[in-house]
Amino acid sequence: MAAMKSALSKDQEKQLLSLFGRVKLHLLHKASIHGFTANVFHRHCDNQGPTVIVAYNAAGFIYGAYTSKDYTQGGEGVNDEKTFLYSISAERNKPLRVTAIIGQCAFTDGGTGPNYGALVFLHDDKPEVQSNPGTGFNFQAADMHGNDLTLTEFEVYRVEDLEDLLPKPWRNIKWTAEQKQQLMKAILNYKPDIKTVHQARVLLVGPIGAGKSSFFNSINSAFRGNMTSQAIAGTAGESVTTQFRTYTIKAGKGGCVVPLILCDTMGLEEKGGLDIEDLVNIYKGHIKDRYQFSTSGPILTDAPGYQKHVTLSDRIHCVVYVVDTCKVSILSQKMLEKLCAIRRKTNQLGIPQLLLMTKVDEACPLVAEDLKNVYRSFYIQKKARELSEALGIPLSCILPVKNYSEELDLDQDTDTLLFGAVQHMLNFADSFFENQAEIQEGNDQMELYRSSDISRPDYQEHKEHQII
Length: 468
Prior knowledge:
Layout: H1 10-17, E1 23-30, H2 31-34, H3 38-45, E2 51-56, E3 62-67, E4 76-78, E5 84-88, E6 96-99, E7 107-109, E8 119-121, E9 129-131, H4 141-145, E10 153-161, H5 177-188, E11 200-205, H6 212-224, E12 243-250, E13 257-264, H7 276-283, E14 291-292, E15 318-324, H8 333-348, E16 353-358, H9 360-363, H10 365-369, H11 378-391, E17 398-400, H12 412-442, E18 465-467
Parallel strand pairs: 11-13, 11-15, 12-18, 15-16, 16-17
Antiparallel strand pairs: 1-10, 2-3, 2-10, 3-5, 4-7, 5-6, 8-9, 12-13, 12-14
């Protein structure tokens, strides 16, 4: 399926948003992808809370309807004082906004296309609108849709209130150059608590387009001191990453290697994508770098990419889920179930887990204005709580971050969030090593503890793929 992207231009989106307060739009349904039928409309838009319809025609009009109520197919008229019809046209400086006639219902909540009386969308399961001015709403047809009732596109967005900034941040961050340097120093000086392991191995897992590869590139750029793009990243509708990749990171050109191995995987899909059995093999260290994932099934033990003999260094020490903050509200039930299944399997293997919320600047305009607002944003906190509840991950294990995407220069605040996330990953990896040490202690194998005089090997000769 093609990637679902809004057809609104920046100016059109700005005009549409001007009809509301401070809100965020989430694209739920796009007829050019899903179809111009009432059935698929209801499948994607029922019980979604406040929504706005955006209809397009060849005459250049963008028009539709907003309701604060749910579509439920209850078969009755729905009263909603907040409902309005609207129209945006290049010939007008501001949108036309039409409220309902007093005493009449806002829309009929049936199994047909959205029926607002004066406008009935997806009429007869076709890309058409039936126009009946005076039925529930009064308007001039030429002003609303230019008398062009054929749809070139039909979209429905969930409308979510962003609200204002919190009185005080829900986490305290020092946004200073000194804090950034302290975090970087702590990361570079990190040493696992087991002497046979010299780098923490962290695996990132998440839906397609969540920003896993971009996170690799952002961390590498922050340590390198300039923008880099080693891991392949993109905005395709299918996973850009098709191999299992392991990356080491160097602090500056020709500098020391960071004691962290970041592992990239194929993106998760509702159907297909990364197989959970492949994921377990990655956890246990059995899958080699550059293994090409197969769509036919998990890796076989006699396959060239399967590593039979593994050590603790080959295993995953921390799992990090990556979720696009913009899509938290519209994660499908199947995707949530898949993430929960992975979490249960990861718990069984005793691997600590974190969650990264990416694209926080795209999700909240207040954060886009100033990244320091990330922990004062009511919306970001709300999305973190939703993820915590849906996936059973403690709120303390959920970290908002911003990846580098359009920038050409590094930013101190962005680096501070990124380094803070890496520090938490290393702390969680330490928990894994402590558990392993307890197991080894019970087996009288205390030699696995790292003694104080053991130093790290020369990472310049490390066999993992180095980001340069």
